[in-house]
Amino acid sequence: MKKRVLKLTSMIVIVVMSLSMFVGCSSKPTSKESSTTKPTTNSTTKSKTTKGVDIGIVLPTKDEPRWVQDETRFKDALKDTDYSVEILFSQGSSAKEKENVDALLAKNIKVLIICPHDGDAAAAAAEAAKKDGVKVISYDRLITNTDAIDYYVTFDSIAVGQAQAQYLVDKASGTGNPLYLYAGAASDNNAFLFFEGAWSVLQPKIADGTFVIKNSNEAIALQDKATLTREEMSKIISQVTTNWDFNEAKSKAEAHLTVAKAEDKGDVFVLAPNDGTSRSIADVFKADTDVTNYVITGQDAEKASIQYIIDGKQSMTVFKDVRTLVKDSINMTLLLLKGTVPETTGSYDNGKIDVKAKQTEVIVVDQENVKAALIDSGYYDAKEFTGLD
Q1: What confidence tens digit (pLDDT) does each residue in 98-128 have?
Q2: Where are the domains positioned within the chain?
Q3: Does domain 157-320+365-384 correspond to CATH entry 3.40.50.2300?
Q4: Residue 366 near residue 161, CB atoms below 8 Å
Q5: Contacts of 304 by beta carbon, 8 Å cutoff, 6+ apart
């Protein structure tokens, strides 16, 4: 009996000791397990998501057809690659733009492509990306006053303005032709480049009397100067800016024609900065009974403006083949992801550094070549338009 009790007691002790060892092992985490429970952070102490995105793209707004088309083209350009992409829109807000960039940085992007709403304001977003070791490509519009930009992919913006102005010059005859000037947003560096290009062509024809400025006393005060400083351009642009907004363009044009005398109308020439504003301004000039004819510029080759050109409501557009711009941006991005230095064709002073740039050519499109430039090239389908021969 004693032996059985002793044997039973020994078994109980062994079981209890085993349980104690098991509990002890499972109650204390190892040092390896402890480190994985802590959130990983980057240099700006933001938590990163586990699943990353390779390429982040930030575009200015979904309210303009141009940028929606860009979204589609970026996705198409990357669909056959092994890289992931996320595209966000800033909706005309620099604050939202910065939020978008921060959100993309939190997903471990390696390359940021950004078209800034405001060149100066976007510097903070670019600097945050640089701090995280992300390559930054300024797309179409230049981010200014920062050294955080690696590359700039753009059309030759000065050439765009020159092409617009040259079209007006080529259509003008005699002297005293009324000239109405409009510009993009003063917050957009491209608006200055467009205007710089246009002024270089228009100013000699203003000086010789071919054109007479009718809607800007700032421009009239500077009309004898062939080359304008940034500050001088700013004075004119601030007075005739459309802010790239259709409604603001319409309101400004209405205000200008309301105060203009009948002799300041007739056959008029209008420098409009892009297609959206061009259509708005054209509608206003067309509705004024004292305007007998108008020649008006544009850029971007938006579908609505191509129909306007076919219908004779808009004179021309500067076709910037966004397919090429997107292709150049993606080719540059893929090279950067592979650790290769991309080729560039020029540089732009952003106020802080000379940013290496890849430039794309532009084409003037009007009724005479609209089919060859946009339909035959496959950019648009003929069935998207009416009245196209």
Answers
A1: 999 999 999 999 999 999 999 999 999 999 9
A2: 55-149+322-360, 157-320+365-384
A3: yes
A4: no
A5: 65, 275, 279
User: Rounded distance, CA 373 to CA 306, Å?
Assistant: 11
DSSP state letters, 151-187: EEEEE-HHHHHHHHHHHHHHH--SS-EEEEE-B--TT
Measure the CA–CA gap between 363 and 160, rounded to whole angstroms.
Answer: 9
pLDDT tens, residue by residue, 223-240 = 999 999 999 999 999 999
CA dihedral 74, 121, 344, 353 (to 10 degrees): -170
Please tell me the distance from the alpha carbon of residue 184 to that of residue 245, in angstroms, as a whole number. 9
pLDDT tens-digit readout, 157-212: 999 999 999 999 999 999 999 999 999 999 999 999 999 999 999 999 999 999 99
Distance, in Å, from the CA atom of 284 to the CA atom of 304, rounded to the nearest integer, reads 16
44: Cβ contacts below 8 Å, ≥ 6 apart: 105, 128, 131, 132
Q: And the tokens for 150?
A: 């690696």
Rounded-to-integer distance, Cα 56 and Cα 90, Å = 13
Helices (H), the chain: 2-27, 31-36, 65-78, 94-105, 123-131, 157-171, 189-207, 217-221, 230-240, 246-259, 275-287, 303-311, 322-337, 370
pTM as predicted? 0.74
Torsion, CA 56, CA 60, CA 65, CA 66, rounded to 10 = -70
Do 157-320+365-384 and 55-149+322-360 fall under one CATH topology? yes
25-43 in b/e form (b: 16+ CB < 10 A) is eeeeeeeeeeeeeeeeeee
CA atoms within 13 A on the CB side of 182: 32
CATH of domain 55-149+322-360: 3.40.50.2300
Contact 272, 182 (CB under 8 A): yes
Pick from 245, 185, 240, 246: which is nearest to 215 by CA?
240
Beta bridge partners of residue 318, listed in sequence order: 299, 364
